[in-house]
Amino acid sequence: MNPNNTGTIEINGKEYNTFTEPPVAMAQERAKTSFPVREMTYFLDGGEKNTLKNEQIMEEIERDPLFNNDNYYDLNKEQIRELTMERVAKLSLFVRDQPEDDIKKRFALIGIADMGTYTRLGVHYGLFFGAVRGTGTAEQFGHWISKGAGDLRKFYGCFSMTELGHGSNLAGLETTAIYDEETDEFIINTPHIAATKWWIGGAAHTATHTVVFARLIVKGKDYGVKTFVVQLRNINDHSLKVGISIGDIGKKMGRDGIDNGWIQFTNVRIPRQNLLMKYTKVDREGNVTQPPLAQLTYGSLITGRVSMASDSHQVGKRFITIALRYACIRRQFSTTPGQPETKIIDYPYHQRRLLPLLAYVYALKMTADEVGALFSRTMLKMDDLKPDDKAGLNEVVSDVKELFSVSAGLKAFSTWACADVIDKTRQACGGHGYSGYNGFGQAYADWVVQCTWEGDNNILTLSAGRALIQSAVALRKGEPVGNAVSYLKRYKDLANAKLNGRSLTDPKVLVEAWEVAAGNIINRATDQYEKLIGEGLNADQAFEVLSQQRFQAAKVHTRRHLIAAFFSRIDTEAGEAIKQPLLNLALLFALWSIEEDSGLFLREGFLEPKDIDTVTELVNKYCTTVREEVIGYTDAFNLSDYFINAPIGCYDGDAYRHYFQKVNEQNPARDPRPPYYASTLKPFLFREEEDDDICELDEE
Amino acid sequence: MNPNNTGTIEINGKEYNTFTEPPVAMAQERAKTSFPVREMTYFLDGGEKNTLKNEQIMEEIERDPLFNNDNYYDLNKEQIRELTMERVAKLSLFVRDQPEDDIKKRFALIGIADMGTYTRLGVHYGLFFGAVRGTGTAEQFGHWISKGAGDLRKFYGCFSMTELGHGSNLAGLETTAIYDEETDEFIINTPHIAATKWWIGGAAHTATHTVVFARLIVKGKDYGVKTFVVQLRNINDHSLKVGISIGDIGKKMGRDGIDNGWIQFTNVRIPRQNLLMKYTKVDREGNVTQPPLAQLTYGSLITGRVSMASDSHQVGKRFITIALRYACIRRQFSTTPGQPETKIIDYPYHQRRLLPLLAYVYALKMTADEVGALFSRTMLKMDDLKPDDKAGLNEVVSDVKELFSVSAGLKAFSTWACADVIDKTRQACGGHGYSGYNGFGQAYADWVVQCTWEGDNNILTLSAGRALIQSAVALRKGEPVGNAVSYLKRYKDLANAKLNGRSLTDPKVLVEAWEVAAGNIINRATDQYEKLIGEGLNADQAFEVLSQQRFQAAKVHTRRHLIAAFFSRIDTEAGEAIKQPLLNLALLFALWSIEEDSGLFLREGFLEPKDIDTVTELVNKYCTTVREEVIGYTDAFNLSDYFINAPIGCYDGDAYRHYFQKVNEQNPARDPRPPYYASTLKPFLFREEEDDDICELDEE
Ligand SMILES: Cc1cc2nc3c(=O)[nH]c(=O)nc-3n(C[C@H](O)[C@H](O)[C@H](O)COP(=O)(O)OP(=O)(O)OC[C@H]3O[C@@H](n4cnc5c(N)ncnc54)[C@H](O)[C@@H]3O)c2cc1C
Ligand SMILES: Cc1cc2nc3c(=O)[nH]c(=O)nc-3n(C[C@H](O)[C@H](O)[C@H](O)COP(=O)(O)OP(=O)(O)OC[C@H]3O[C@@H](n4cnc5c(N)ncnc54)[C@H](O)[C@@H]3O)c2cc1C
Predict the structure, then answer these.
(1) Interhelix angle for B300-329 vs B348-384, to 10°?
(2) Residue B205: half-sphere exposure toward Cβ, Cα within 13 Å
(3) Name one Pfam family in it (chains A, B).
(4) pLDDT at A1
């Protein structure tokens, strides 16, 4: 009856309609996957053992009634704050009892299902703990553990760095810590409102203690910003300590589960021992010892950046799974009259919108793992360092420097990439992507702060760009540089490299393309830098002039890193059965990256205009190839429906049924009249018009 | 005392600190503007009369207690829905009493301050009304007006097009309207769950009537999708009519003020007269007359698109104002030791992040006005059309076609641009951009649905691209084409044009650059199209193969349109005093657009690699120039603090004071213990550990 044949689909002689077909279509799609999905999961997780552990933890979370997320998207700020507190309490028990690696896995999984809880825990275990461990002595760390910081008993720490007037520029913080020699105390003070500590996660409701960043002032001399532990609330009744004012920062774009607050200190006295003294020391007489390298002090800040690269993969995989599953069951428009409508995944344009993002999400994982491992190795070295081991110290210092710049670029571009994935996958789901119950809106609002906190992405990128130029300068002087920029050494051979008819599907050639592009940008910027210095500018001024170039350098260098790490991980770790499917993704990622930035390759002369056509054809080709196994690729992420938490992205593909059901469960059919019917709607809609009450004038 | 000199600033011999300086800095910045801001406002508003009217309406809104937005960002879904209803009721009174132009102005202004209210009104006055006026006869229109549709008395209309399973593909909708000759009625029915009307704004709480898109079936023959008016609720008690089921769609990413619902029809009988019969007619005997051109039926859909281009400007100007004002008072990092920290607006990189967006927001206005005028002219022609005026009909049909494709591309790229403006300006404000009280989060969540509804942006773009290829095909056959693509006529002269040493600051050259780029893309795609047709594909199939090219074509063509319209409006309307400031913006916009898409111009050979360096230098140069007068450019938008609704973006620049105050007003200092202290926090944080209760075994 319907000439557009939109309603009915025949599969193996059986008829389905728009409502009943999706799960059948999903089963068909799933059957297309030719590679062993389970093996892909092991590859992604770094081995079967990890997969099994993840699955165990996922089950524990899902079964716990406290982690039921059925009404997650309908909670208001007050409700989500309380629930988050309960979840934090529950999770802290695991921290006490379980091995560190399991805890990390659990947190990472929670981070997919409930970003607020993840962060509220992170405020204490990541930021507070990290600062005390990273900048306190072993004795100090032990002291705060003995007070309850280890298992959150009579203790909850927060991290007071940012002020209303200062964020990125730590050196500009204005809170003061003046040493009072008479009493052997520091006096912590907020000089004016713009120096109020601001945004402090955990401060508004939870924290009993905080690490404070404040200017150390001894005998009138300002030693710059150092870290101190300050007690905020009295133990047991949770009232504020004398001299502490705290307010609630209230509504945020997202992450309402975290109780961000502001803190003002009014001449709060703390014992001298509360200065965290691993690097900076003040003795009873007010003698001050400064650290050998400022960056060591902030080493703990790297932790967050490294884990954000990994979070970007975790959250990205959730949303690319939803959009690709939906694309496999959603039909819209028929391209051939009389034929059923086309699945949107079969539109070449839709493939181009989503499949490069799938490849990107895979790529993020490889690089995050690589940098994560580098980070762990460096931290171990740092912990093992003997106080008088000069050579060892130098090595650690240079590793930390490398980590700083690598993690800066990676944090920035991964968190942006993930934001982009959430945004683009939402749009790829049309109107249903805008439903609260499919999770995109909430996740975007929660996610994007990752681009701002723990190092604003733009500032990180600029500083990564600065480090790249510094490396090039070092190389020119014959000094050693870190691994991440070692390709710059071969720069002279690369500078004028061209494709020259070589294959654009050869990983080596693709990596080379990116090395040429990155190398040229960095070296051109370095030329300019040296010229500016020659003209008498100081380093800061010269870098300022080159900010746009620094951004570009960091961008292209980081993309190179992602591409190289992807190919290299396939090379070293992928079994035969999954090698080709992984290569297809990696090639798609590298080629699409070139297409997106084609001006770069044309400009550098590595490619000619006709090569860009080839790149486009290849992107199309790999889209077509990857499209066939999208369900395999996304199933390999191994997220259960609990973690997906979006009815249109359910495993079984029965999207309309789950979605309709979800909407109705959360909004049970009640009175067709809204709650404000009597108060507002009725008096308006069913009003009687009043006559204009004009007094008649006797004008005759 | 502070070697970084971050805290204090000296201005005219007087010292200010981080907290007190901002308003002084703002006054200084404001004084820099060299052009007459008021004249710029007139230019933007299209004349002094419009400005005065806008100001009058703004004052009326601001003073109305019902429109007080002090706690806007803290309202939950239930509260915002009720408030929105009250505001809709209030605004409907203006619709009754005021001239159409004033109403439009009022709605547009409301759209800046409260997008939900704007849309909830729009559901009736835009969508329902538009459909009845556009596809009903004059008698039918009059009938529904007489029922109360004109002033929302005992009448509230909604618009039921989309179904759970179908959105963009109107032709695939599955709701049926079967003509029952016996009773002279249509029977409206929802055949299965996926055919449930979905997303219908106003359905859940408010609507008494709806326009339904349903398949017209007469004597077993399916005539495709037509529009019908159906009553949903009984008048006076607001209960559901027999056969109507309605549910609440609940939580959305944003726009919670609108009561979107789903509707199922179970054999609902409506009189034959409820088919909207301007184009499609069914008589008593079941004879069906079809319209001359399907597109005329959907002509009313263009209204929304045209106004969305204008909305993009309206909302974009609010957020670019906030970010630029903040950038003028926020200091972070000192570039020269001992000097005060730098205002972030003075970082070249920050200028590049924001100033091209400022130019973009200006550009949107020029094009939106131009297309708006074209639209009004066409609608007038359409209304004046005599039934037997063949020539007139042809002209209108060709105008409507042109409007369809122009408005499609413009709607897509403007709404995306505005989303980008909100997102990037938020990031430019660092952490404070994430505060609920600065409005970015709410606005983004509310805004982005504009990219999806009333024509999904991607689909619109593809269809605009299709129209461009069709125009090129027509041109090749010597047929006439619309104004918007007339530059394709000169294509042969342009195809191989190069910059050839001409100035990149000559508007003519810049417009030519974009015409060459757009022309080449369109013509290459047209070559491919003709080749595919030659190979035996039908048009749909050929267009499918060329989807990526269609997207590119629409993108570049639309950018050309924005650039050309900007220069031309300056040329024809700007007085001397504001000409240069406007040109600076337009040049920045055109040059930055080239830089962003440099691959395009290199590929087409219009520019050479060294020209790209010139473009970059010029972008830098115009950023520096425009930077000096940013406060003037943004003040010219003439939005009061009420419409800005972001303390960090206030007119007086006293950002920290307003922000601190706002946060504390909305979150008054109460108990330092959270509401869930007794229930959740205390039992956890102050728990006594239980001993592990292990039964001792007598194992000896
Ligand atoms: C939800 C949330 C939770 C947070 N939790 C905590 C917490 O628990 N503890 C804590 O201490 N902090 C916390 N923060 C603060 C966060 O770390 C800062 O917001 C972040 O570091 C950015 O600093 P800022 O906001 O001061 O931005 P700014 O440094 O003021 O930057 C503003 C803008 O200017 C640009 N800019 C600045 N300097 C330069 C330059 N030199 N060159 C070019 N551009 C420049 C930036 O890119 C940015 O766009 C939180 C923030 C948020 C939003
Ligand atoms: C908040 C809200 C309010 C709304 N209010 C109303 C209302 O009052 N009345 C009403 O009738 N509707 C309403 N809508 C529905 C809205 O108009 C539709 O969601 C919109 O038209 C998109 O249709 P869809 O969701 O079915 O997406 P689909 O058409 O299913 O598209 C899904 C995805 O597939 C892609 N795609 C589809 N076809 C193709 C193709 N041929 N080629 C390439 N890609 C393709 C699209 O780009 C999109 O990314 C509302 C929606 C929302 C979110």
Answers:
(1) 160
(2) 25
(3) ACOX
(4) 40
For residue A563, pLDDT over 50 is answered with yes
Q: Does an H or E element contain A415, and which?
A: helix A390-428
pLDDT at A2: 47
CA B691 to the chain's CA centroid: 62
Catalytic residue IDs of A: 454
Reduced to 3 states (helix: H, G, I; strand: E, B; else coil), residue B246 is strand
Instruction: Give the number of other Cβ atoms within 10 Å of residue A378's Cβ.
Output: 19
Locate all alpha helices (DSSP H) within A174-299, ordered by sequence: 294-297
Average pLDDT, chain B: 94
Residue B435 tokens read as 């505060």
Give the distance from CA B376 to its chain's centroid.
19
Q: How far is CA B139 from CA A103, B289, B291, in A?
A: 71, 18, 18
- Is A74 near chain B, with CB under 8 Å? yes
Beta bridge partners of A247: A262
Residue A86 lies in a domain: yes
Per residue in A576-595, pLDDT (tens digit) is 999 999 999 999 999 999 99
Residue nearest ligand 2's atom 4 by CA = B199
- How far is the alpha carbon of A452 from chain B, nearest alpha carbon, in Å? 6
Contacts of B638 (CB under 8 A, 6+ apart): B41, B44, B45, B51, B54, B55
Chain A / chain B CB contacts < 8 angstroms = 409
CB B135 within 8 A of CB B297: yes
Q: Is the pLDDT of residue A662 over 90?
A: yes
DSSP state of B252: B
Please, which pLDDT band fits residue A664 given cuts at 50, 70 and 90? very high
pLDDT at B2 over 60: no
Residues in A touching B220 (Cβ below 8 Å): 1
* Number of structural domains in chain B: 3
**Average pLDDT for chain A:** 94
Quote the pLDDT of residue A693: 63
Mutation pick from A15, A19, A345, A422 vs chain B, by most beta carbons of B within 10 Å, is: A19
pLDDT for residue B454 is more than 60 = yes
**Is pLDDT above 90 for B492?**
no
Statement to judge: residues A398 and A274 lie in one domain: no
Query: Which pLDDT score, from 0 to 100, does residue B132 have?
Result: 94
Token pair in block for residue A52:
């099994």
Query: Among B419, B448, B89, which Cα is nearest to A683's?
Result: B89
- The structure tokens 């509707």 sit at B263
- The answer to whether B629 contacts chain A (CB < 8 Å) is no
Does residue B15 fall inside a structural domain? no
Q: Does the interface predicted TM-score (ipTM) exceed 0.95?
A: yes
Is position A640 within any domain? no
Task: Specify if B112 maps to a domain.
Answer: yes
Cα of B451 to ligand 1 centre, how many Å? Answer: 29
For residues B187 and B115, membership in a common domain is answered with no
Domain containing B77 equals 46-134
What torsion, rounded to 10 degrees, do the Cα atoms B351, B352, B356, B361 define?
Answer: -60
d(CA B497, CA B557): 17
**3 state DSSP class of B240:** strand
Whether residue B296 is predicted with pLDDT greater than 70 in this model: the reply is no
Q: What is the mean pLDDT of residues A261-282?
A: 97
**Closest-CA distance of chain B to residue A76, Å:** 7
Dihedrals phi, psi of B271, to nearest 5 degrees = -65, 150
Ligand 1: residues with CB < 6 A are A 123, 159-162, 167-168, 199-201, 252, 255, 260, 449, 452-454, 456, 458-459, 462; B 330, 332-333, 344, 347, 349-350, 427-428, 430-432, 434
Same domain for A304 and A284: no
Residues B603-617, buried b or exposed e (16+ Cβ, 10 A)? Answer: bbebbeeebbebbbe
The CA distance from B302 to B551, in Å, is: 20
pLDDT exceeds cutoff 90 at A692: no
Active-site residue flag, B454: yes
